[in-house]
Amino acid sequence: MMASILLFLLLYFTNLQDSGADFAVIKPAALYYNYVSLSWLSNNVVLAAGYSDTGGVILRSTDQGNSWSSVRSQSSGFLAIASESISGTWYSIAVDEMGVTYRSVNNGMSWQSYDTNSSAILMGASIGANGYSFISGRSYIAYGSSVSAAPLTWTDVTPSGNDFNDIR
Fold first, then answer.
1. Exposed, middle or buried: residue 86 (CB in 10 Å: 0-12, 13-18, 19+)?
2. pLDDT 10s per residue in the chain (168 long)?
3. Phi and psi dihedrals of 89, rounded to 5?
């Protein structure tokens, strides 16, 4: 039984595209993340946001999810990611559990952090076709400046007495 499990794990973590002549091992550490949000940017580019006990990660795929690379990792977990094409440029925002937002203006290849002036655990992100965005978290909703503007700024628009966990 143990040999069967080990064989399964070997095959699971191995890419056998050319009959096993070249083995590409998938790093098992990536499997320890809970991937909680995905965003499709274009025909081939996909972003994934996740968290674990030790931090967070944003992954990027340029081949429709067949392979992934880490583009940002940190000590706090990422809980949501959203993307939108505005005037031919893809903008993405991600939020983390420490109340920080991140923006990418280059198809998710690099990220800049922006403070929300909130300690809320952020769990939701949305970008409209007009380029304006919302983020949400525990008892917190904020309206964002246009994602094409720098710096990205947030205005608290939280209704009183509610617990909003996600905007979609």
1. middle
2. 333 333 333 334 444 444 555 555 444 345 568 999 999 998 899 999 999 989 999 999 999 888 899 999 999 999 999 999 999 999 999 999 999 999 999 999 999 999 888 889 999 999 999 999 999 998 889 999 899 887 888 999 988 765 555 555
3. -110, 135
Q: How many CB atoms lie within 10 A of CB 27?
A: 10
Which CATH number does the domain housing residue 100 bear? 2.130.10.10
- For residues 21 and 54, membership in a common domain is answered with no
Answer yes or no: do 14 and 45 share one domain: no
Domain that holds residue 3: 1-27
Domain co-membership, 82 together with 129: yes
Peptide bond into 159 cis (omega under 30): no
Q: What is the DSSP secondary-structure string of 20-79?
A: TSS-EEPPGGGGGSEEEEEEE-SSS-EEEEEEETTEEEEEEESSTTSS-EEEEEESS-EE
